[in-house]
Amino acid sequence: ALVVQRRDKFPSFNLPRRVPTDLKKPGLRIVVTGGAGFVGSHLVDKLLARGDSVIVVDNFFTGRKDNLVHHFGNPRFELIRHDVVEPILLEVDQIYHLACPASPVNETIDYLFGISRASLVSSKVFLNKSHKTNVMGTLNMLGLAKRIGARFLLTSTSEVYGDPLEHPQKETYWGHVNPIGERSCYDEGKRTAETLTMDYHRGAGVEVRIARIFNTYGPRMCLDDGRVVSNFVAQVDGLVALMEGEHIGPFNLGNPGEFTMLELAEVVKETIDPSARIEFKPNTPDDPHMRKPDITKAKQLLHWEPKVSLRQGLPRMVSDFQKRILDEK
Ligand code: NAD
Ligand code: UDP
Q1: Where's the NAD(P)-binding domain (predicted)?
Q2: Residue 32: φ, ψ to 5°
Q3: Which of 36-50, 118-132, 188-202 has the lowest mean pLDDT?
Q4: Ligand 1 atom at shortest distance from the alpha carbon of 98
Q5: 186 among known catalytic residues
């Protein structure tokens, strides 16, 4: 019944691959799922700047049109409102699969943080949506990659290491994740996404790449994101190097510069308001005690390493936040 239903819905599923002539432009044709989000929109800027054609597929769950508005009118740019949990037909050369409700604040229960997020959907929706997007969304994007012979890149996360028993973490570490905890929807969702990615590579010959991103911050980050900062958006260069290179990964993309939460709070205080008072609150359940990427592999094989230190990067993000808060008023 499923096959019949799918044939009705997408009659071209069973046709051989065909690239419409009007899409044959110089440069690559690239899909970025989650391209209206924080990392995705910076990636889109980079790809368009180098001459590629970019289709963003995003349901605006946490992303914003504002992040892409400067590309409206560019004939090489297209924005599709679509939930990747549903199948989609496109013809492209590469797929950057970033779509995912990514912030842990979104995944856990609001009262733990005491943060009011009236504008965001209820946490239950997030919990369900995170896993569903990681599993069904990744499956659909891999099915698409298989059908059209596109190269597929997954943005996985340092969360696959859970609360690590190995420090720093190399890509060979299998992780220490609670499968039934409050943040497992994200951790286990991404672990499944990695498994699916390797299944499609081994089983269907899809060309795949896996990046494990460590906490990244910078302009355009969701105002109530709630993640701990550690790396500036230079991560995007790492994603492109990975997509263009010969190595499947996984690769850790992160900043090995380690600091305690108190050290971080001091830098934030210095940057924003030296008279601010630091408050201590209980941590969220299953939050990892330590995290630090070993980036030897990315340095050697992708020639990538982070460029912006916390003290350089934080003021740039703060000025972006201040501007946006003022604009919202
Ligand atoms: P973000 O929330 O800013 O971006 C995610 C984007 O995906 C948003 O635009 C959102 O609307 C879209 N999206 C979510 N569910 C969707 C769905 N079902 N269909 C279509 N679009 C959907 O987050 P980000 O920080 O830019 O993260 C991008 C990717 O990088 C995510 O896969 C995330 O897991 C990964 N990552 C980010 C970090 C980080 O620190 N920023 C760390 C590790 C991994
Ligand atoms: N899919 C899609 N676009 C495509 C091809 C596939 O969204 O161009 C989806 C498809 O609906 C399915 C998933 O990707 O749910 C996996 O596809 P695949 O052909 O690998 O799996 P199958 O349907 O054969 O189990």
Answers
A1: 32-236
A2: -120, 105
A3: 118-132
A4: 32
A5: yes
